[in-house]
């Protein structure tokens, strides 16, 4: 590689272009410089190498044997460099990194992702389901789904829909729940890491969490939901987590009311990076899926 230090890259490009195109004018047009600049670059390269690379003729520039050998290798090398740049661009356009909370990934996104892949097989999606918030400005993440009050500073943020919760349980347990007050007589499943309190749903009913009895406790919302499906108790679940399970009859909402939490789902992306096609397609697809689920988007 040390030989590359002997000639400037612009000189190498000039040599390759002139040998391939035959004239200074054509090479200048491709390189977007003047013919004089191309001539100077070649002269400097010849001086640095101590070799005559071209014969100056009235009809154009003819490479010497040394020039032809060098130009052939340069054409091959620049072709490889062009392919490398094209591969990087292609890979970036065809890849999408999405950061979502583990419970949303497991309970909503992963089940529907094959439908996106079916519509856009050219886009490779990678799901980052880390618990911590990711900064799209300083990471390779293209799109984040956050739940919070928003709006978020220093990023692009689009509100998707309101975050709502409701009690869910197995069908057999639902038979024991005629009114909200009956929640005092069944096991209550608790997510130890949830920021949503049962009072969010109970208060509009004139009740509070003090009526609730004990029940299984988990540090993961997805496990809480599994426990509810298994008949272990009643869980205060996010609206989006139970849609397919409810459609299949594995879990039911004994009371129809969904309680707003004061938070929303937000699509977040880098502030200074314009959304690419893959990102726009994914956002549009998510909105379509949510609307199909009966979620009011916007």
Automatic annotation (TrEMBL):
Query: Listed GO molecular functions?
Result: DNA-binding transcription factor activity; sequence-specific DNA binding
Q: Which organism is it from?
A: Maritimibacter harenae
Which biological processes are named by the entry's GO terms?
DNA-templated transcription
Q: Does the keyword Transcription regulation apply?
A: yes
Instruction: List, for all copies, the residue spans of the domain called HTH lysR-type.
Output: 7-64
Q: Origin, by domain of life?
A: Bacteria
PROSITE patterns attached to this UniProt entry: HTH_LYSR
| Source organism phylogeny | Bacteria, Pseudomonadati, Pseudomonadota, Alphaproteobacteria, Rhodobacterales
Q: Name the chain's protein.
A: LysR family transcriptional regulator
Q: Name one Pfam family in it.
A: LysR_substrate
Which keywords accompany this UniProt record? DNA-binding, Transcription, Transcription regulation
Q: Which family does it belong to?
A: Belongs to the LysR transcriptional regulatory family.
Among Gene3D superfamilies, the record links this protein to:
Periplasmic binding protein-like II, Winged helix-like DNA-binding domain superfamily/Winged helix DNA-binding domain
């Amino acid at each position: 590689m040390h030989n590359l230090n002997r000639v400037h890259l612009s000189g190498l490009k000039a040599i390759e272009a002139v040998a391939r195109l035959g004239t200074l004018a054509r090479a200048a047009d491709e390189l977007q410089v003047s013919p004089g600049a191309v001539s100077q670059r070649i002269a400097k390269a010849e001086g640095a190498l101590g070799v005559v690379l071209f014969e100056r003729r009235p009809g154009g520039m003819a490479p010497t044997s040394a020039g032809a050998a060098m130009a052939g290798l340069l054409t091959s090398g620049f072709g490889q460099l062009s392919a490398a740049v094209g591969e990087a661009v292609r890979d970036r356009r065809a890849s999408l990194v999405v950061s979502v909370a583990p419970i949303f990934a497991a309970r909503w996104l992963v089940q529907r992702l094959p439908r996106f892949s079916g519509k856009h097989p050219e886009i490779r999606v990678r799901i980052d389901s880390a618990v911590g918030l990711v900064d799209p400005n300083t990471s390779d993440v293209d799109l984040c789904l956050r739940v919070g009050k928003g709006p978020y500073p220093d990023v692009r943020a689009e509100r998707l829909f309101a975050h709502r919760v409701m009690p869910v349980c197995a069908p057999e347990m639902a038979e024991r729940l005629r009114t909200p007050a009956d929640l005092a007589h069944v096991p209550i499943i608790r997510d130890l890491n949830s920021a949503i309190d049962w009072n969010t749903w109970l208060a509009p009913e004139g009740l509070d969490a003090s009526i609730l009895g004990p029940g299984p406790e988990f540090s993961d919302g997805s496990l809480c939901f599994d426990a509810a499906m298994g008949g272990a108790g009643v869980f205060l679940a996010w609206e989006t987590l139970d849609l397919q399970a409810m459609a299949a009859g594995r879990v039911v909402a004994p009371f129809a009311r969904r309680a707003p939490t004061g938070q929303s789902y937000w699509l977040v992306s880098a502030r200074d990076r314009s959304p690419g096609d893959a990102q726009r397609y994914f956002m549009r697809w998510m909105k379509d899926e949510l609307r199909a689920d009966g979620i009011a988007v916007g």
